[in-house]
Amino acid sequence: MELKEAIAKLTELQTKMYAYRTASSALYLDGVTVAPKDTSAGRGVALGILAGEEHKLFAAPEVGELIAFLKDKKSELDELTARQVEILDRNYAQLSKIPMNEYVEYAQLTNEASDIWHRAKETNDFELFRPVLEKLVKFNIKFAGYYDGTKKPYDALLNEYERGVDMVYLDDFFAKVRSKLVPLIKKIGEKPQIDDSFLYKKYPVEIQRKFSDYIMEVMGLNRAHCTIGETEHPFTLNFNSQDVRITTNYSENSLADSLYSVIHEGGHALYELNVDPAYDYNCLSGGVSMGVHESQSRFYENIIGRSEAFAKAIFPKVKEFFPEQLEGVDAEMFYRAINKAQPSLIRTESDELTYSFHVMIRYEIEKQLIGGTLEVKDVPAEWNRLYKEYLGVDVPDDTHGCLQDSHWSGGSFGYFPSYALGSAYGVQMLRKMEKEINVWDSVAKGDLAPVTAWLKENVHKYGCLKDPAEIVKIACGGEFDAKYYVEYLEEKFSKLYNL
Ligand code: ZN
Description:
Blueprint: H1 3-32, H2 40-59, H3 61-72, H4 79-97, H5 100-123, H6 126-147, H7 153-161, H8 167-189, H9 205-218, E1 226-230, E2 236-240, E3 243-248, H10 256-273, H11 290-304, H12 308-321, H13 331-337, H14 355-371, H15 379-391, H16 417-436, H17 439-444, H18 449-458, H19 468-476, H20 483-496
Parallel strand pairs: 1-3
Antiparallel strand pairs: 2-3
Bound molecules: zinc ion (ZN).
Zinc ion binds next to helix 10 and helix 11.
């Protein structure tokens, strides 16, 4: 085989895989947005076929031969092709280790688990979910061995979501967070609480929709390339760098819920839209990892979106949309209200300060589950114990406890830590950004363009060209250190609560 021919085949393979994924994503998006209620069965058939075909296409022995051939010619490849071969080689090695019957069985299990989890959550019935969760844990322990048999199972799973991250790294990270923030949260608990009641007046959904348009405009999201839909759980879906969709969920009794969902998902969308378009339709496209993705979404949501400069910049406009609801409220009150910190039960509704503790609890539980020191039947008790210990809250039932998140039902173990890491990466990126551009002068004018341009240059544009750890190092200007994150939270919340 000629080298040129091999590269052409590699391109063709990746474009085909892109096509399968695009078809699956479009079906998924349709299912969660506009499809009529009782229509999932037919889509399930089509999705099953598409997933099977994509798997067959990639797992074929010819693909293994093609990758091996190109690997041998590494020195003759350009940078982009060499990186594609490296990523595909890794994925191929992993996939070919999973026996086909286990792969199919697992796909069916996660599909079934999602429905069971929904019902269990709705009816507060952990026992209903327990058998399926036991199977999922067993599968993941087994798969961890396929991913990387040289690592401890949970380390191998963590590595799947954030390459280079393991329990040693995370234990150190969470220990730093815990040692500084537990006393801070306790001190805040002794201070008078911020009044945020005006955020929970009646905010008509019709007006909130228009407000979302305004927020997307402020973020510089080009509506010719990014639309917004409505789903139960907000998310971002990217087809390619020119076509990204975000969703939100409107609650008539809350202004901040959808506002911060739009900013969060908008952050994910900007990342996807700013990846070098040259990477479209191959494995270099899209954000590099969960942790880096969350660093971007949470950067916009919290570091910018909940900053004093941004809150005060947008407040006059917020008041134009909701003059009655915000009568008597000024920009300072608005800024304080959107930063109210209070230990609570639900991760997705938690504030910037206590958020990491929700993640830490899930991390501790997963570590024990995959490590074999905690049985699934004991998860609720352990969950409740940790919520009491770290956040001081009593969990009333499993619906508001260990059944609240969908991740485990989808077979995702090792995913949660990336949320907390992302928050921390973002702060360290901010410190570097502040040295290079006038971040807060622009934000105070409601102009986020310089911030986005900086992130594009230091994070977004790379797509998957580099490993997450390398991108973090570039954007942070050095090795990652949790101290920046902890100091940022200490400073911000000490000021907010006059400590
Ligand atoms: Zn996110």
